[in-house]
Specification:
flavin adenine dinucleotide binding; oxidoreductase activity, acting on CH-OH group of donors; alpha/beta; three-stranded mixed sheet; 249 residues; 10 strands; 26% helix; GMC_OxRdtase_N; GMC_OxRdtase
Length: 249
Amino acid sequence: EAMKPYLDGIERERNEGEACPTKLRDDDIFEQNQYPSMLPTGSKSQLFNFCPSSAPSTSPQDHSPKLFITTTDNVLSKAFTDAGAELGLANHIFNPARYTIRNGIRWSSYHEYLRPAFGRANLHVLTNSVVQRIIFDETKRAVGVAVADSVDGTVIVINALREVILSAGAFQTPQLLKLSGVGPAAELKRHNVPLVHDAPQLGQNLFDHLNLPLYVSINASASVTLNKIANLHSIYNYLKHGTGVFSST
C-alpha cells in the first residue's frame, strides 16, 4: 500500500503515515503532513480513471487542468485485486499499477499545464539555465531566485511579484533549499552556507520502495510477450486507435 505514487481519493481505514518506518521522528512536522493533509491538494490536480472492473471512478466531473492517471483493466489486474478480497483484506489494499497515460501516450504536467500555456504573453521559459538559490527577505519570505546561464555562467536575479513555486523533485527540491540556507543548521554550517532557517528534517528519511518480483505460470494468454508486441496488429491498434500493449507502458 505504501508503493502508490498518486493520491487516489479512496477512503482509508488508517493513515498511510502509520506505514512509515519507525526511524521517522514523530515531531510536529511529520504529524501535520500525513496523508489526509495532502489529499485535498492531490484531488485538485489529478483526474483518475479507475479500471471499471475493480472500482468506480471517484473523479470530479469538471474540465479544469488535471494530471490524467489511469489503471489497466485486464485479467491479471483483476486477479490481483480479487485476491485481496478473497483473503479478507480491506478494499483496495491490493491495487493495480497506475500510469500517467492518456489516449495511448504518456501524460505529464507538460502536456496538461505547460503546453496549453505556450501562447500566453505572461509565460517565459528559460532554457540552458540552472537555479542556484532562492532569495529570501528579512522575514524569510521567498522573493526571487538567482539563475545561472549554463553556457557562460552569467548569473541573473529574477524577482517575484507574487510568489516563488519550488517544484524540483524529491532530490533537487531539498538540495536547492539547502543551497538557499534552509535545512539542518549543522550541515549548512559545514558547507559554509549562510543559515536562513533551521529545518532539521529537510532532506532526511529518504528511502526507496522495496519490490519483490513474483514469477507465476498461468493458463491464459494475458501476459505481454515479444510475439504480441512485434506484430502488425499491435502496431496498427496503437497508431490507429491508441490502444493495445504499446499504450500501457
